[in-house]
Each structure stands twice: as structure tokens, then as C-alpha cells.
Specification:
By secondary structure, the chain is an alpha/beta fold. It has two domains: 197 residues, Alpha-Beta Complex (Spore Coat Polysaccharide Biosynthesis Protein SpsA, Chain A); 60 residues. It is built from 13 helices and eleven strands. The strands form three sheets. The protein has a five-stranded mixed β-sheet with strand order 3-2-1-4-10, with helices on both faces. Strand 2, helix 2 and strand 3 form a beta-alpha-beta unit. It starts with 5 loop residues before the first strand and ends in an 8-residue tail after the last helix.
């Protein structure tokens, strides 16, 4: 049994209804835990301010005047928290399994663990990839080509497992670490990084590495955090014995093929991640790949829809000229 209070830190940007569901799920699954919920609102316009500012019981709410980004908002949330153990959790998640107190106890008792994470699934209970090896140029190119998405969509996971079983050297490549997400075995294992859908850690570890790098507005900030925690000698661990549900756009569908602001953040963060951790050459090559990819997409959609094509062309200057970053 845990006698230490924990803090759930949630970043909100127009996720009022999802957070209401998350709060309800916590009241049921974490009834044995003393906890507080810290909500940092990145200038939502969906009525979140009016709703959450009126709540007081175990909820700390901070409304920001502008969207400062996911990592920066988490830094604010951790600073507002009053406990030694923090759970960084996405607003569109649900904790439905019992036993979260046992899960938390592992982090509090095992000082060598820097980040602890559960298994993550979509609402239809399909596995959501939640851990892996540190990203490289090859990783980001594969992501941009949606290789992992097509592998899952067309049911090729088992086929790839068969290939890896015959070619064991692939186990330690990005292919093997990706397939580890789909293992049927209940395991507690060390990995390079876990996703920010749910990250459990001690506040002292978070503060030791000075929290999230706020140069990542969105995407890659979780892997960067894990990498720096690992460099400080801590382990990044995932335990598939406990499961949370993460919507991650599962219900929302988008008919438009236009390039979205969120997609732009992914590209920019990927380039910055390589520049920071791998090298400028890899970052430059990824930038060039993205330029040609967006040129191709723009030319393709030019045949059907100028407005969609324009979104790809307009992003080219941002890809060609690096964004100025704050020094860390």
C-alpha cells in the first residue's frame, strides 16, 4: 500500500470532455491512492477554463494566456505539483485497470528506475506502439512514409515476427524493437524510450535533468526526456502487466489531406531531435528528404486541389530555413 501522495499532470488544449472522462476513470481505478490532478491549460477555447477553474477537490488548474507547447506546459505542471511522484498523462487517456497503486510503488521503491510506463492500447484494444530504440535518420524517414501504420493496417506484424525469428540479427534493429510492442508475453523490460501517453517518475529525477526541452513544441519531447534521463544513469522501463487506453485521434477522422499545423510540429521536432542527439549531417539529410517529400505532395495535390497543394508549398520555407532555438 502507498502512503505517499502522487500527482497526475495533464496538459489540456481543447480536451475538456476527454479530461472529464479521465478524471472519472481515476476516481474508480485509483481509489486506493491519495492523489492530486494538475491541469495546465494551453489557452483552450472549448469552455475548459470555465469548467475546471470551478473545481477544487484535489484539482490544481492553471490557465495559460497562450499555447506554450506540450513540454513547456508539463514543466509548469510539475512545478505546481506538491508530491514526490508524478504521472505525466495525456488528456485523451483512461486508466481502467485496478492495481495502479502497485504500479506506482515500483517507481517509488526502485531508485534505479527513471521512467516507468504501462502498456498502451487503442479503444478497440489494439496495441499502440509505446516504446522503442532511440530514433535515427532511418527511423524518421520510415515514420514519414507511414511504414508502421501500413504494417498494422494490413496485418503484417506476424509476418515480420516470422522474418525476425529466422534473422535474429534484426532483433536489435529498429524493426525488432518496434515488434517488441506487439509481444503477447507479460514483461517488465528496459528500453530506450517510452511515449508521453503515460510516464511515471519521481520528481527529483525530472528536476535533475531540468524537465522537458521546451524547444520541442510538440512531438519527440518524450523521447528526448527519456534519452537525457538515461544519460544520467537511470533505467527506462515498460511493464505490460498494466494497461491504459489512449484515444490518440482514434475517433476523430479528417477528410482533408491538407498539411496541418500539428504535422508541421512533427517534422520540425524530428529535425531538431537529430540535430541535438545524432548530428547535423543526419538532420540536414532529413530536412532535404522532407523538402522533396512536400514538393512531391504539393505537385500531386496540385492536380486535384490547389488549396491542399498550397499547404505543402507554404511549408517549404520553414523546412529550408532552420527555426531559431533557445539555448539549454
Amino acid at each position: 500500500m502507498i502512503d505517499k501522495k502522487i500527482s497526475f499532470v495533464v496538459v489540456n488544449y481543447n480536451y475538456r470532455e476527454d479530461i472529464q472522462k479521465l478524471i472519472s476513470s481515476l476516481s474508480i481505478s485509483c481509489f486506493r491512492l491519495p492523489y492530486e490532478i494538475v491541469i495546465v491549460d494551453n489557452a483552450s477555447t472549448d469552455g475548459s477554463k470555465e469548467y475546471f477553474s470551478g473545481l477544487s477537490e484535489n484539482i490544481i488548474y492553471r490557465y495559460m494566456d497562450k499555447n506554450i507547447g506540450y513540454g513547456a506546459a508539463n514543466n509548469v505542471g510539475v512545478a505546481l505539483s506538491s508530491t514526490d511522484t508524478i504521472v505525466l498523462i495525456n488528456p485523451d487517456t483512461l486508466i481502467e485497470d485496478e492495481g495502479f497503486d502497485t504500479f506506482i510503488a515500483i517507481v517509488q521503491n526502485e531508485k534505479k528506475i527513471g521512467v516507468f510506463a504501462p502498456k498502451v492500447v487503442y479503444p478497440d484494444m489494439q496495441i499502440q506502439p509505446n516504446c522503442g530504440a532511440f530514433s535515427t535518420l532511418k527511423t524518421f524517414i520510415m515514420q514519414s512514409l507511414k511504414i508502421g501504420y501500413f504494417v498494422r493496417k494490413f496485418g503484417l506484424v506476424e509476418n515480420l515476427k516470422g522474418v525476425v525469428s529466422y534473422l535474429p540479427f534484426l532483433q536489435k534493429t529498429f524493426i525488432g524493437t518496434y515488434l517488441d510492442n506487439f509481444s503477447d508475453q507479460v514483461t517488465c523490460k528496459e528500453c530506450d524510450w517510452v511515449s508521453g501517453a503515460c510516464m511515471i517518475m519521481r520528481k527529483e529525477v525530472f528536476n535533475e535533468i531540468k524537465g522537458f526541452d521546451e524547444n520541442f513544441f510538440l512531438y519527440c519531447e518524450d523521447e528526448d526526456l527519456c534519452r537525457r534521463i538515461s544519460e544520467h544513469g537511470y533505467e527506462i522501463v515498460i511493464d505490460t502487466a498494466f494497461t491504459i487506453v489512449h484515444n490518440e485521434g482514434f475517433i476523430k477522422t479528417r477528410k482533408s489531406k491538407a498539411l496541418t499545423p500539428i504535422a508541421k510540429y512533427r517534422y520540425q521536432s524530428s529535425i531538431y531531435y537529430l540535430e541535438k542527439h545524432v548530428g547535423r549531417v543526419s538532420a540536414f539529410l532529413l530536412r532535404i528528404f522532407y523538402v522533396f517529400q512536400h514538393l512531391f505532395n504539393g505537385m500531386f495535390y496540385l492536380l486535384f486541389d490547389w488549396n491542399t497543394a498550397k499547404t505543402y508549398f507554404e511549408f517549404l520555407p520553414e523546412l529550408l530555413f532552420p527555426v531559431e532555438r533557445r539555448q539549454r
